[in-house]
Amino acid sequence: MTAVPHSPPAAIQLRGVGKRFTGSDGEAVGVAPTDLDVAAGEIHGIIGFSGAGKSTLLRLVNLLERPDSGEVIVHGENLTRMSPPQLRAARQRIGMIFQHFNLLHNRTVADNVAFPLRIAGASPERIRERVQACLSFVGLSDKAEAWPSQLSGGQKQRVAIARALAPEPHLLLADEPTSALDPRTTLSLLEVLDDVNRRLGVTILLVSHEMAVIRRLCHRVSVMEAGEVIERVELANGQVPPDSRLAQWLTEFGGASPTPAQAAGALEKESASV
Ligand SMILES: Nc1ncnc2c1ncn2[C@@H]1O[C@H](COP(=O)(O)OP(=O)(O)OP(=O)(O)O)[C@@H](O)[C@H]1O
């Protein structure tokens, strides 16, 4: 019998998903009706200039933004057709981290990590076990009783990652997770995210305007311009295909040639960003 080749299951399938915003100066396109496919186990980047629609696209995946059109399918489940209780349950399988960490400042680190589990009605044993496991994973077991104000930016983002991992998600949405961090802290944070993907098998969709971050971490990248995904690029060891639109951008705006040596080199903020 001939083996039938099969592609990895899809983690995210956006089909014609669009979002418009109404403001004081009329309607604006956040994301034009768009398709996006992210395979399970992949780290997929979204890059583009400010206002291109990156954050909106990311927030459409867990329906933090409700689309005006199209369907959002995550791990085979159509989120756009779910009832509110079904959607709450599905969101337990989708973690999210943000540029400014969004920790609860009046709760300890352990309570922050426990928060999504408490909301979901997990047992005290399960909460204790997951808090320990997740803080250990991000290297902050000794900070369980600290307050967020006592932590550095990098440590705060590690706590946010631990909190996102607590319900054992299949998918992590990361919105500019290193933009508030210095280059060295950025590098160690990217290693944590790489571990989340490799060791836990979590698919990651990551928004960044920093090409160095995308190169270091992502297997593929979708390039956005004016609310549209204009290109999807495979990154082999961080190398950008020279005939891509992205390579053209880097030459025009980043002043850097997209070589693997650069990708492997120290991650500096002043390197190519769009
Ligand atoms: N809540 C909102 N109300 C009105 N307009 C919005 C809202 N959120 C986003 N927009 C508009 O949608 C477009 C896309 O915004 P979005 O934040 O997704 O872009 P971005 O690529 O993430 O930008 P940045 O890199 O600056 O964060 C912009 O024109 C923005 O002004």
From TrEMBL:
Task: Give the Gene3D superfamilies listed for this entry.
Answer: P-loop containing nucleotide triphosphate hydrolases (3.40.50.300)
InterPro entries per record: AAA+_ATPase (IPR003593), ABC_transporter-like_ATP-bd (IPR003439), ABC_transporter-like_CS (IPR017871), MetN_ABC (IPR041701), MetN_ABC_transporter-like (IPR050086), P-loop_NTPase (IPR027417)
Q: What does this protein do?
A: Part of the ABC transporter FtsEX involved in cellular division. Important for assembly or stability of the septal ring.
Q: Name all ABC transporter domain ranges.
A: 12-251
One GO CC term on file: plasma membrane
**Which species?**
Azoarcus indigens
Q: Which UniProt keywords apply?
A: Amino-acid transport, ATP-binding, Cell membrane, Membrane, Nucleotide-binding, Translocase, Transport
Instruction: Report what the protein is called.
Output: Cell division ATP-binding protein FtsE
GO terms under biological process: amino acid transport
Q: Which domain of life is it from?
A: Bacteria
Tell me which family the UniProt entry assigns to this protein: Belongs to the ABC transporter superfamily.
In terms of SUPFAM superfamilies, this protein maps to:
P-loop containing nucleoside triphosphate hydrolases
Q: Name one GO molecular function term.
A: ATP binding
